[in-house]
């Protein structure tokens, strides 16, 4: 179990809700993975009066999961802040996954706009989940302005590259031992998610790797198992790598044959 503020959470997997082949596939994926938090874009939901948005929301709200709205697609501070306020009104939650995109090609966050938007939203009473890179200084600035959780990427959104800079992620975990850390973006395989959890992260958020799988519910279940076992391994105490061999069989009691002198012919 881990916590965000006063909210206790059992599942170490969060799922996005876009790109699924059907609402039924999304529902089954959420159920198979036993997730407790899902992310929803305001653009995905659109307005409650529109038929597609209302149908999507009807499929989600009966699943007994907590909704984490996001500001996906926002490129400026004002746009992100405005979208966050609209999401709070629509979804009735002060949780917001904050995205302020700075680059069209990598969808890398704009660190300056991200910190500024986070500061404003914290003052406005939001629990801000900032989507950021693995940069240590940006992470510290986000914490300084009041963020109580961080969501560093593993790799660019939708790339499936896995942990491209595990040492940077490990450093974040080491420097912020009491801050909930969620790896967000770039996870493509269950083994990637397990590797993140073995670093001591609290959770993994992913979307594309499940939504675009041949069998999304089965893939969701695979990721749920991976994050659970990765966390279990971390808590059990993983073996540190060594640059030398260490015999697993003790020498004590091993059969010993004395050397026999060999006489050489004179």
List the helices and strands and how they pair.
Elements: E1 2-4, E2 7-9, E3 13-16, H1 23-33, E4 37-41, H2 42-45, H3 51-61, E5 66-70, H4 77-91, E6 95-98, H5 111-123, E7 127-132, H6 136-144, E8 151-152, H7 166-175, E9 182-184, H8 190-198, E10 203-206, H9 208-211, H10 216-236
Parallel strand pairs: 3-4, 3-10, 4-5, 6-7, 7-8, 9-10
Antiparallel strand pairs: 1-2
Give a quick summary of the entry.
The chain contains ten helices and ten strands. It has 266 residues and is of the alpha/beta class.
The major sheet is characterized as:
5 strands, parallel
Number of helices: 10
State the low-pLDDT regions, or none: none
Helix content: 40-55%
How big is the Rg?
Answer: 23 Å
The shape, in one word, is elongated
Structural class, by secondary structure, is alpha/beta
- The total count of strands amounts to 10
Distance between the termini: 79 Å
**Average pLDDT reading:** 89
Largest sheet: spatial strand order: 5-4-3-10-9
SSE string, helix = H, strand = E? Answer: EEEHEHHEHEHEHEHEHEHH
- What's the assembly state of these chains? single chain
% residues in beta strands:
5-15%
Overview of this protein structure:
With about 270 residues, the protein is of the alpha/beta class. It contains ten helices and ten strands. The strands form three sheets. The protein has a five-stranded parallel β-sheet with strand order 5-4-3-10-9. Strand 7 (about 125-130), helix 6 and strand 8 (about 150) form a beta-alpha-beta unit. Helix 1 packs parallel to helix 10 (about 215-235). The longest helix has 21 residues, at about 215-235. The chain is elongated and about 100 Å long.
């Amino acid at each position: 179990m881990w916590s965000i503020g006063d909210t206790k959470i059992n599942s170490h997997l969060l799922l996005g809700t876009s790109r699924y082949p059907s609402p039924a596939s999304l529902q089954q994926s959420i159920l198979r993975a036993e997730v407790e938090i899902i992310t929803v874009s305001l653009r995905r939901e659109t307005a409650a009066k529109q038929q597609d948005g209302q149908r999507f929301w009807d499929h989600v709200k009966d699943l007994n999961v907590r909704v984490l709205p996001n500001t996906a697609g926002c490129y400026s501070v004002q746009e992100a802040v405005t979208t966050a306020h609209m999401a709070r009104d629509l979804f009735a939650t002060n949780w917001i996954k904050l995205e302020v995109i700075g680059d069209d090609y990598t969808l890398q966050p704009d660190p300056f706009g991200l910190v500024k938007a986070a500061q404003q939203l914290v003052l406005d009473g939001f629990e801000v989940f900032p989507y950021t890179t693995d940069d240590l200084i940006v992470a510290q600035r986000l914490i300084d302005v009041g963020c109580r959780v961080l969501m560093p990427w593993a790799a660019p959104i939708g790339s499936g590259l896995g942990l491209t800079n595990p040492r940077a992620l490990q450093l974040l975990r080491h420097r912020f031992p009491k801050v909930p850390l969620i790896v967000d973006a770039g996870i493509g395989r269950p083994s990637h998610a397990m590797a993140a959890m073995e670093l001591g992260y609290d959770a993994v958020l992913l979307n594309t790797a499940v939504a675009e799988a041949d069998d999304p519910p089965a893939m969701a279940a695979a990721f749920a198992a991976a994050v659970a076992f990765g966390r279990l391994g971390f808590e059990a105490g993983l073996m540190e790598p060594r640059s030398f061999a260490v015999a697993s069989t003790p020498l004590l009691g091993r059969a010993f044959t004395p050397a026999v002198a060999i006489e050489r012919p004179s």
